[in-house]
Write a structure and sequence with these properties.
42% of the residues lie in helices and 12% in strands. Helix 1 links the parallel strand 1 and strand 2. It is globular. The chain is of the alpha/beta class and 311 residues long.
Length: 311
């Protein structure tokens, strides 16, 4: 386990503040652009990002071979060199295969794994508890559960999250990307009513950039695992930190329009388009994902110009 510690913001939890769900940049021929991956990782660290998530859904992980995933992991670990915590995406819809992969994975340099709810199978809530109990038992690193019903077809309910976390001390938090603020607040109430989870500082992390300022300001979430911060790490870190630490701060919504554009035709197509118009990477995705339409690319460019010089 990595011995990194997060002294970049006055938070109690290692995974508070801004986490970036890092993209995987590709060259026009579709191969991984290692120099750009290196520069994007360094840009995150130097811009104030609190931690980085590697090989999540934003990274187009399902399209990467095993060797390519190792290349991404080792590149980011080498660049980071312990300066910020790293989270490794490890998910699947076959519990046995996933736990075997977790047991044999090289997780040197990582501080936790992020594991998505099983997709396509649509397990019951009882099945989710059993799945994540198996994941927690297999992992030597702490586990952050990832609830994203829009991608998986199953919603992990707050009561289920609490049940799984109480049964497995290795489950330290959740990335909540249901898009349902009421559900996330209900989870916060349930966690606060459990002495064990409260004492463990169980982390409720937003998975939705658009909802984060509101939920961070009222104390529901401890931060966000963000897509937007791939492009605007310094600016978005400032917003998130102020929302968490300054009760008098009122977010003015200046990044709401660009955030909406990023998800109009799906993620990571939108964020790669923005990074492309910023001159930071090629606008290349792997099938079945494709680049955004010409109209959306124009809209992103127009919004990027409105945000100048911050963008």
């Amino acid at each position: 386990m990595s011995n990194t510690s997060n002294n970049r913001a006055p938070f109690l939890h290692k995974f508070s503040g801004l986490g970036t769900a890092l993209i995987t940049p590709f060259l026009p021929d579709g191969s991984i652009d290692v120099p750009v991956l290196t520069s994007l990782t360094e840009r995150q660290i130097s811009s104030g990002t609190d931690y980085i998530v590697v090989l999540g859904s934003t990274a187009e992980t399902p399209t990467l071979s095993a060797n390519e995933r190792e290349l991404v992991k080792r590149t980011v670990v080498s660049v980071c060199h312990g300066r910020v915590p790293l989270v490794l995406g490890m998910g699947g819809n076959c519990t046995g295969s996933l736990t075997d992969e977790i047991k044999h994975a090289d997780t040197r340099g990582f501080d936790a794994i992020l594991s998505v709810c099983p997709y396509y199978n649509k397990p019951s809530q009882r099945g989710l508890v059993a799945h994540f109990s198996a994941v927690a038992n297999a992992s030597q690193l702490p586990v952050i559960v990832y609830n994203v019903p829009g991608r998986t077809g199953i919603n992990m309910l707050p009561e289920t999250v609490v049940e799984a976390a109480i049964a497995n001390s290795n489950i330290i938090g959740i990335k909540e990307a249901s898009g349902n603020a009421e559900q996330i607040r209900r989870l916060k109430t349930l966690v606060d009513n459990q002495d064990e989870l409260r004492s463990r500082c169980f982390a409720i992390i937003s998975g939705d950039d658009g909802l984060t300022p509101e939920l961070a300001h009222d104390g529901t979430v401890c931060g966000v695992i963000s897509v937007l911060s791939n492009a605007l790490p310094k600016q978005w870190a400032e917003v998130i930190h102020k929302c968490l630490n300054d009760k008098a701060y009122q977010y003015d919504g200046r990044y709401d329009s660009i955030t909406g554009l990023l998800f109009r035709e799906g993620n990571p197509a939108g964020i790669k388009a923005l990074l492309h118009v910023m001159g930071l990477c090629h606008n290349t995705l792997r099938l079945p994902l494709t680049a955004v339409s010409e109209q959306l690319l124009k809209d992103i460019l127009d919004e990027k110009e409105k945000l100048a010089p911050v963008c």
